[in-house]
Specification:
The complex is a heterodimer of chains A (514) and B (460). Chain A has 514 residues and is mainly α. Helices cover 60% and strands 3% of the residues of chain A. In chain A, the strands form 2 sheets. Chain A has a two-stranded antiparallel sheet with strand order 1-2. In chain A, strands 3-4 form a two-stranded antiparallel ribbon. The chains are: A mainly alpha (514), B alpha/beta (460). The structure holds flavin-adenine dinucleotide (FAD) and iron/sulfur cluster.
């Protein structure tokens, strides 16, 4: 079995290597038609001329091609700016589409082959490693050696992994033109699903979904025998595959706007942006349903479900960010900071982002109804600041790239405005709590160590107090790893939920509480 | 009673000493509190020592309070070994020679591993497991170990066996009794654990005793010889045959030897105390593992209680007595305890002796790795105790049920409310009730919760 696993790792690494090299192979040649086909009408005249020296030239690497393109493109734009011809300045980003259309490489010709030797190989290797895990071992907690593992305790492997993820996210968000080969590779898949060629976001969604599925299977192995973990993991796998990946593409196939029905504002911060509203309003009954459903989720769904089940119904059962954190991120859950200081920072940050999102949205809606009389295009500025700082930097680069450094819920804990909203409901009006079992706690610290949200669970458990915290996503791992059966996630009567008993059951000497 | 300038010194930063200090501080903002301990700078959870070795946690994770906590609560800490107490002058002498005065002294020095003078017990590679230093030693010994032998079938023994297995080191586990821990567990449960130990590929030897430990020419252990003459080659021997109060320094320098001795401390196996944790010397108290009650604190309790929970309760109660106007005697409630045998969690409430006592009866149900046992009074059917394996039970439920003397019918009729397993876990309640019907002819039913109830609530 061990050997199969080693081979699995080798195959996975080969796939990963191919995935990392593919972007840099092949030739690129821009032609006039390509510009005509991919550039908006209003920019055509300008760009056809600006780019004309590139026509017919073969570039042997995407660096040269993109470099040359960017040079010409920005010189032209700078020129316009200098001459104050603001109306002609091109704000659209054509680097990605033009590079993609100019690719002559082998990936273009044999996308399936390249998909096979990169992503498919990595998945196969990953599964070969994962499926035999804990094969002949009895059900139970499998945390042996985590703090001796370089990968899982901020060792060299962890640092390399984190760096790789960070670099990947930076390229994905700000330099997608360099990923064109990878996008070409998934083009046929995208065509099959939505009838459209793939964008970098399709590529991202595809890998994201695979990561959740494969690492979800790892969760089944790791927590085998724990029904709560198994069902919860199956749930995030389902919601990612069906609601976040397949359904939106099918909508596009039906000429509807791309829409993820389980994404909720303010996590889905652009929900009330003009283009989204227009998209939904102009898409007939289904579009209207998207709008109304989205609003119902915000106004009724979140408070109601959170009242009955706590925020876990979303964060560790449905959400895509949570889904990745709970599967791909599970090996890093112990790296979250449990200090009181971190908790303070968390409260400022996460509520700060919530306020930002709410203010931004309020401005946007007001502006929309006043037909842009109020702020003109200033909201666009705010949107792009939020998109850059929160949407890309925080949620993406830091949110996932920092898994191996700060644990798997950095975004959910410090940044997600929806988590902040759900948390406020959970803290003040909910039936959910983690019940502490009387005086059974031995203060061992397993619960706190494995809390991905950095909650010092033991602080409460050792005092015989229930855990009622805004940030708890109800992953249930504290309860799973507790060696004394002290913790139970429960929905129950509100009375007695917040308990404070300084003297714990078992001592009859002191009966007066407090 | 509260005296603003009094200086309270506690020897030992374990659960008992630290709980006492915290609770004194809650009630008394003035007192000077100092905790002296030679083992570690800060309080850590001794119960988590195994998890450090197994790589589940690091030392810092086992500290229940962050390091700033002590300053903030003005609890002074000092890392040092106390070598002697001058009860006359009310002073402590530290190993480095420093003198520390006190008004009130609390001895909370814990335990140390038992040894029984076996030949070879001082060889390199032979050790117990109690302190952080023991763990460090074990870590240092580990690389050379191709087989480890653990002697003593108790809670620490099974932990040590699991520790080695977590690093794929073969383990032979010697148990003197006919089943694991059967001086505490009834036979069925003990055998259930026997089987589980073996599924973890541990070479469990029942009814096997240590005769002597054999040395190589460098003074390291080379093998262990059993009473039956078998030699087991090994590079490590873990001696886990119980613990006893850690009072060596007091025995050496402070023990009361004659009746006229006014400054000597009354010692037996531990430090002798009354129900108020008072020793024979005024203003000197003892709590936790090192304390030995002159009289049992309750009919079903021992005079030395070496568990985490009782250490905590001792600390709570003594703190109350040192800060309140009137003192209360230590009065433990319904007994409870828990442990984990590899993957099987164990919880117990009330009294479940290894063999039935006259006038009591028992009902036991077992399936795979799950088991539950009830012991009850055979004349009035009142519940006396429960053992559960692989089945989490609610503490407050059984605390009430046992102290109020609920009948078996009442308890079993609410077994759903007593259940503390995580949501979605397979529930064996119906099987247990069916077996109870079979045994006693009494049928007890639990109403199935309505669909709505199931939908909104996981708590019965
Ligand atoms: C491996 C292991 C696992 C355990 N698991 C469990 C469990 O699961 N459940 C349970 O209920 N119990 C368990 N126990 C028992 C439990 O840990 C003890 O009962 C408890 O820690 C005792 O607390 P204490 O405060 O009395 O003493 P200790 O925790 O022993 O603290 C005493 C401290 O005083 C220090 N000290 C002693 N003498 C001096 C001196 N002269 N000068 C300075 N310092 C001194 C010691 O070094 C020590 O640090 C376990 C014990 C061990 C060793
Ligand atoms: S894991 Fe369980 S026993 Fe350990 S500190 Fe947490 S609640 Fe207490």
């Amino acid at each position: 079995m061990k050997n199969i696993q080693y081979v699995g790792i080798a195959i996975f690494l080969m796939g990963l290597l191919a995935f990392s090299v593919i972007p840099f192979i092949g030739d690129y040649r821009l032609e006039e038609e390509i510009v005509r086909e991919n550039v908006k009408e209003i920019h055509q005249e300008q760009l056809l001329e600006v780019l004309s020296p590139m026509y017919g030239q073969t570039y042997t690497s995407n660096f040269r091609f993109i470099g040359d393109f960017n040079d010409r493109f920005s010189t032209h734009n700078e020129d316009l700016k200098e001459r104050q011809e603001w109306d002609n300045v091109i704000w659209d980003d054509y680097a990605f589409v033009l590079t993609k259309a100019s690719s002559l490489g082998p990936v273009n010709e044999r996308p399936y082959f390249f998909l096979l030797i990169s992503v498919v190989l990595a998945v196969i290797g990953g599964l070969m490693y994962i499926l035999p895990l804990y094969r002949h071992e009895p059900d139970g907690i499998k945390n042996d050696g985590i703090y001796f593992s370089s990968m899982k305790s901020r060792g060299l492997l962890g640092i390399i992994t984190g760096t790789y993820l960070i670099v990947f996210y930076i390229i994905l968000y700000w330099f997608p033109a360099y990923l064109t080969n990878l996008v070409l590779m998934v083009d046929p898949l995208s065509m099959a699903l939505s009838g459209n060629p793939a964008s970098q976001w399709f590529l991202y969604g595809f890998i994201y979904t695979l990561a959740i599925l494969v690492m979800g299977i790892r969760m089944f192995r790791k927590y085998k025998g724990n029904a709560y973990q198994t069902i919860r993991t199956a749930s995030v796998m389902f919601f990612q595959l069906a609601f976040a990946f397949m359904l939106p593409e099918i909508l596009v196939l039906l000429n509807m706007p791309w829409h993820d029905f389980k994404n909720i504002w303010p996590l889905d911060y652009s929900f009330f942006f003009e283009y989204r509203i227009d998209g939904m309003v102009s898409s007939g009954a289904l579009g209207m349903f998207m709008l109304i459903w989205g609003i119902i989720l915000i106004v009724v769904g979140v408070p109601l479900f959170t009242y009955f089940y706590g925020k876990r119904w979303y964060c560790s059962w449905v959400c895509g960010c949570g889904g990745l954190a709970e599967t791909l991120g599970d090996p890093y859950r112990q790296l979250s900071d449990k200090s009181l200081k971190a908790w303070k920072v968390e409260r400022y940050l996460v509520h700060g982002v919530l306020v930002f999102a709410v203010v931004m949205t309020a401005m946007t809606i007001a502006n929309y109804f006043m037909e842009f009389g109020l702020l003109g295009n200033a909201t666009d500025q705010v949107h792009s600041i939020y998109g850059f700082m929160i949407g890309s930097m925080f949620a993406g680069v830091i949110g996932t790239g920092f898994y191996p450094f700060m644990g798997n819920r950095v975004w959910c804990r410090f940044g997600c405005p929806l988590a902040a909203y759900l948390g406020i409901v959970q803290r003040f009006k909910s039936r959910f709590r983690i019940t502490t079992n009387g005086g059974q706690c031995i203060s061992c610290g397993n619960c706190s160590t494995y809390c991905e949200m950095g909650i010092d669970v033991r602080w409460y458990a050792q005092r015989g107090q229930n855990i009622v915290r805004a940030s708890c996503v109800g992953c249930g791992v504290c309860s799973a790893v507790c060696p004394r059966g002290v913790l139970k996630l429960e929905n129950g009567e509100e009375s007695g939920r917040v308990s404070d008993m300084p003297i714990i059951i078992g001592n009859k000497s002191i009966t007066v509480k407090n | 009673m509260s005296n603003s300038a009094r200086k309270i010194v506690i020897i030992g930063n374990g659960i008992s000493g630290v709980t006492c200090a915290r609770h004194i501080r809650k009630k008394d903002g003035q007192a000077e509190i100092l905790i002296i301990s030679g083992e570690t700078d800060h309080f850590f959870s001794r119960t988590a020592l195994m998890y450090i070795y197994m790589g589940h946690m690091k030392y810092e994770h086992t500290k229940p309070y962050e390091d700033w906590f002590w300053d903030k609560n003005r609890i002074a800490l000092k890392k040092a070994w106390v070598t002697q107490v001058d009860f006359d002058k009310k002073e402590l002498l530290l190993a480095e020679g420093e003198c520390i005065p006190y008004n009130t002294l609390i001895l909370a020095t814990g335990s140390k591993p038992n040894t029984f003078g076996w030949p070879g017990q001082d060889l390199e590679g032979v050790q117990g497991l109690y302190s952080m230093q023991d763990l460090e030693k074990m870590e240092k010994n580990t690389p050379a170990v191709r087989r480890a032998v653990v002697v003593g079938g108790g809670l620490i023994g099974i932990e040590m066996a699991e520790m080695f297995r977590s690093r794929d080191i073969p383990v032979t586990f010697l148990v003197r009794e006919s089943n694991f821990w059967d001086n505490v567990l009834p036979k069925e449960e003990a055998q259930l654990i026997n089987r589980h130990i073996r599924t973890h590929h541990i070479d469990l030897r029942l009814e096997t005793e240590l005769e002597e430990i054999l040395s190589d020419d460098t003074g390291r252990v080379r093998a262990l010889k059993t009473k039956s003459g078998e030699e087991i080659a090994c590079e490590f021997v873990g001696l886990t045959v119980g613990v006893r109060p850690n009072i060596t320094f007091l025995e050496k320098n402070n023990k009361r030897l004659t009746d006229n001795d006014k400054t000597g401390l009354d010692l037996s196996l531990g430090i002798l105390v009354d129900a108020y944790f008072k020793t024979n010397i005024p203003d000197v108290f003892a709590i936790g593992d090192c304390a030995e009650f002159r009289e049992r604190p309750a009919a079903d309790r021992k005079t030395i209680e070496q568990v985490w929970y009782t250490g905590r309760m001792h600390g709570e109660t003594l703190a109350h007595n040192l800060t309140a106007n009137s003192s209360v005697p230590y009065l433990p409630g319904v007994w409870f305890n828990s442990a984990k045998f590899m993957d099987i969690e164990y919880q117990t409430y009330g009294q479940v002796p290894p063999t039935l006592e006259p006038g009591t009866d028992t009902f036991y149900w077992e399936k795979d790795r799950t088991a539950i046992r009830f012991v009850y009074n055979s004349s009035n059917d009142n519940l006396l105790g429960v053992n559960a394996f692989g089945w989490r039970l609610r503490h407050d439920f059984f605390d009430t049920a046992i102290s109020e003397g609920w009948t078996m019918a009442t308890v079993l009729g609410q077994l759903d409310k007593a259940n503390f397993n995580p949501e979605f876990f397979k529930n064996h309640i119906q099987e247990v009730l069916a077996k109870y019907r079979q045994k006693t002819g009494r049928s007890i039913t639990i109403k199935k919760p309505s669909f709505f109830h199931r939908l909104i609530g996981s708590r019965a």
